[in-house]
Amino acid sequence: xxxxxxxxxxxxxxxxxxxxxxxxxxxxxxxxxxxxxxxxxxxxxxxxxxxxxxxxxxxxxxxxxxxxxxxxxxxxxxxxxxxxxxxxxxxxxxxxxxxxxxxxxxxxxxxxxxxxxxxxxxxxxxxxxxxxxxxxxxxxxxxxxxxxxxxxxxxxxxxxxxxxxxxxxxxxxxxxxxxxxxxxxxxxxxxxxxxxxxxxxxxxxxxxxxxxxx
Length: 214
Hints:
about 210 residues
């Protein structure tokens, strides 16, 4: 762990029921902890997948209309990359890892996937947006994740991150990575939260992109 991370509590982890051959790293939203999402993910878990929900990814200025904290976002992305490296050391290849998150956690998961040199299995981006979007070049990215599968989900009644931010983000993503691999789901009446239908869509996405290998 790097020095600035010593005070961060250990992530909430749902271990795989048998040998873990895949992992989901899920980043929570502002003011939450990893426990809330670890409970939600426990309801859709697969026996060969380990779920890791870190705490305390509170980044100043990570909301769609605030002044963005570029240094903070980049540092948080490095922390996420370190978590991915840790799982690779534990024997799970990076292409068997899905990165996900809600609100600012989703924003961070998108930013990390598009900037890392670690080839990932996919991204689950819930009620979020792409941060530092001006820092990305126009047109397709050249990195290892240019073919990455993305499931982006948004409630059509979200008062905090309006649906428009989700729609703009999905258009930007489709210009950066293979648009055939970007799925955008909206949920009628859903605010800045989650719902059963969304959790089922997430389960289907995880099952598709992290199938059992044995």
